[in-house]
Amino acid sequence: MTDDMVPDEKGYFGSFGGRFVPEILAPALDELTEAYRQAKKDPDFQRELYRLLAEWAGRPTPLYEAVNFAEKLGSKARIFLKREDLLHTGAHKINNVLGQGLLAVKMGKKRIIAETGAGQHGVAVAAVCAMLKMECVIYMGEKDMARQSPNVARMQLLGAEVKPAGGENGTLKEAVNEAFRDWVASVRETHYLLGSVVGPHPFPMMVRDFQSVIGREVKEQLKTRYNRLPDYLIACVGGGSNAMGLFYPFVKEQTVKMVGVEAGGQDPASGRHAATLSMGRPGVFHGARSLLLQDADGNIAEVHSISAGLDYPGVGPEHSYLKESGRADYTAVLDKEALQAVEFLSLTEGIIPALESAHALAYTMKLAPSLKEGQIVVVNLSGRGDKDLEIIREQMEGKR
Ligand SMILES: *Cc1c(COP(=O)(O)O)cnc(C)c1O
User: Fold this and answer.
1) CA-CA to 363 of 20 to 30 Å: which in 192, 225, 233, 260?
2) Strand partners, 267
3) Is 325 one of the annotated active-site residues of the chain?
4) Catalytic: which of 82, 93, 143, 387?
5) Residue boundaries of the structural domains of the chain
6) Residue 63: is its pLDDT beyond 50?
7) Would you say the CB of residue 241 lies under 6 angstroms from ligand 1?
8) 84-97, pLDDT tens digit by residue?
9) CATH number of 60-90+212-399
10) pLDDT tens digits, one per residue of 147-195
11) Domain 25-54+93-207 architecture
């Protein structure tokens, strides 16, 4: 199914993707590409991955019909939630981290490094490293460490070393730079574990494949119950991994509409947003060519979102490609719309969604009244909202 699909041998999805890294990393990326190619067809590797996904991480995740949510919106359609929020460490991120962790073991690596913004990816990496007995170093902007101290404590409890990056104002961009610097110096024994469908080839392809277990399960679950495909797939887009994981197994099913929802922030016109696909221009960031939020001089723009996981100036190259080809649509919702969606799902279904996932829900709420009888919509509930409680409470109090 995948062989005639993108990317090409050099990692290009149309004009997006590729490898924009220091020369010294090229052999490591080649080694990784080859190891991944082998692992993909190795039944022992796949069996071990699926065993751990089931027993340690909690797959398959349920596909839950949100009847109250749909009814309250006056929707005639059936709206389903893919419950990635029920996974170990609270989000879909673990699917990819487990896959790459096992691959690193197979490659004989002893050490794993990663960068993290809000700390969610860092926590997933630290958990997998503990379980696989790997040394673990997480780079995190110093400002992010202060803002996200519970996640720093979690990573440390799981045995990871958390290294501050970029001084007082350091955020994800500085953490990415530090992680690349480390990798250049340690590439023989170290695997760099990227957290989304971003970075140089083969990461966007490999992370997509590890996450596409989401879409494969949805396809199977709908086939078993209703013997049909969905009409809409809706997911939030930060780097783009949960969306790619849901979309990918349906890319060739032309009747299935796919919508990625970005962070419109406070107001897209004000510049305080992270709507990369909606507002970005082509550029190079994080080792690949994709759409990118940049200022007039081509510097990476400051981005903003109420949800830390969507607060990223770039986006995976395959999304830029799907947008350009028209196969997927991308839109953005505001911070305040995401907050309303958190409250609405909590009250109607007893599920507190992550602020990231709430962007997909907020768009679904706008779409719902126009849907037809019997249509099937699947929304990816990428994570749970416990981590966001502080922000949610502050914002709601601000309103009262
Ligand atoms: C990290 C995160 C995201 C954004 O990452 P993608 O790569 O775009 O999926 C979305 N939802 C949750 C819950 C996250 O933790």
Assistant:
1) 225
2) 272
3) no
4) 93
5) 25-54+93-207, 60-90+212-399
6) yes
7) yes
8) 999 999 999 999 99
9) 3.40.50.1100
10) 889 999 999 999 999 999 998 888 888 999 999 999 999 999 999 999 9
11) 3-Layer(aba) Sandwich (3.40)
